[in-house]
Write a structure and sequence with these properties.
Length: about 350
């Protein structure tokens, strides 16, 4: 069995009026893979084709070593026979059934021997155990969405497909539901394919990132490496920045907390999580500036040595994106073309980065 057999494989080609989809996805069989791209780039179409809701002639789709579609071999497993859960933007719950009956409905679809989760355990995982006797019309949008996710899980899927599951929620509800999605990620081994056009959501949740533009894959790879690419089209470069996975190592005497990553330490405002907690942070390219020698007169706390690996023009007039490595950890900085020229910033140049802002994502 080839290595990718354990993961998700989708080769899809489709022609519509004014839109052509041509993707070949090979995604890991665990963790959250985000499909990210502008409106109309084909994210939903990919999900629907993988689910079998949309029949794409000639396609090949396999999940966890099970072939769901291989037109060359005459295989097309109908959607109701595919072990998948699908969560849409708006939860479509049965209005006449309470939450428990809605969840039981998902569970009953699976033969007893193949059920992987207990109703109570899934309800607890999603924090809806106190809502089991309620009708959907007495739930908030965020609660409804958590019930929809629980119902999808109770069908014991091999793959969970989520199409902008937070898009219909306001900011507060989004913040309320994100920790539950992180729990799914931490506690289930099931792969999740997650469609979003929110960079914050992707940075917070994803392990693997697929960037789609006009029906094509622009980049696909581990989140950290993919976000650190400097050669992405302007749509993606505009909000450029990297994500670092860190561990809360301790607190400095002056009250700041120390976050250790593979190649150094960042200092941030005091964190109350337990020492040893894993925290993910985002560093925007616009928050990173460069100096040729170690600044001794800077108010910026996070100063780290780095080496330039590439410089790329952006669509922002007069600005360039600089790709660097702090040891093995990639970083992006956005500086002016003038500074690039005056400091002679080019690949191979060793310098110091000043990180003005570190956004804690989780
Ligand atoms: N049923 C359909 N029939 C014809 N064209 C469609 C259909 N559904 C979508 N399209 C077109 O296919 C293209 C891709 O649409 P898709 O919904 O996959 O994009 P998306 O990236 O999910 O967009 P959004 O972020 O706005 O949801 C668009 O040009 C869209 O107009």
């Amino acid at each position: 069995m080839e290595a990718h057999d354990a993961g998700i494989r989708a080769r899809l080609r489709l022609q519509r009026d004014g839109f052509a989809l041509e993707v070949d996805l090979a995604l890991p069989g665990h963790g959250i893979s985000a499909l990210f791209g502008p409106s109309g780039s084909g994210k939903t179409t990919c999900l629907r084709a993988i689910a079998g809701l949309e029949r794409v002639p000639g396609a090949y789709v396999a999940v966890g070593g099970e072939v769901w579609q291989d037109d060359a071999a005459g295989i097309f497993v109908p959607v109701h026979r595919r072990a998948l859960g699908y969560v849409f933007q708006e939860a479509s719950l049965f209005a006449h059934l309470d939450v428990r009956a809605n969840l039981a409905f998902g569970r009953q679809r699976v033969p007893p021997g193949e059920r992987r989760f207990e109703l109570e355990a899934v309800a607890a995982l999603l924090g809806i155990d106190h809502l089991l006797e309620r009708r959907p019309d007495r739930l908030s949008g965020g609660e409804r969405q958590r019930v929809a996710i629980a119902r999808a899980l109770l069908t014991s899927p091999r793959l969970l497909l989520m199409d902008e599951p937070l898009a219909a929620l306001d900011h507060r509800r989004k913040q309320e539901i994100l920790p539950y999605l992180e729990r799914l990620h931490d506690e289930l081994s099931m792969p999740i394919l997650y469609v979003s056009h929110s960079p914050d959501e992707v940075a917070r949740l994803a392990d693997h990132l697929v960037l789609l533009d006009a029906g094509r894959v622009v980049a696909s790879g581990p989140l950290g490496e993919t976000l650190a690419r400097a050669d992405l089209p302007p749509t993606f470069a505009d909000d450029a920045g990297v994500v670092l996975d860190t561990v809360l190592e301790g607190h400095a005497e002056d009250g700041l907390s120390r976050l250790a990553f593979a190649d150094g330490v960042l200092h941030v405002g005091r964190r109350e999580e337990a020492i040893g907690s894993r925290l993910r942070c985002r560093i925007h390219a616009r928050d990173v500036s460069l100096a040729l020698s170690r600044p001794l007169d800077s108010s910026i706390v996070n100063l780290l040595p780095a080496v330039v690996t590439a410089t790329v023009g952006t669509d922002r007039p007069g600005h360039v994106l600089v790709q660097l490595r702090m040891g093995g950890t990639p970083l992006l900085a956005r500086i002016t073309e003038r500074s690039r020229r005056e400091l002679d910033i080019a690949p191979g140049r060793a310098l110091w980065v000043q990180i003005k802002g570190v956004a804690l994502l989780r």
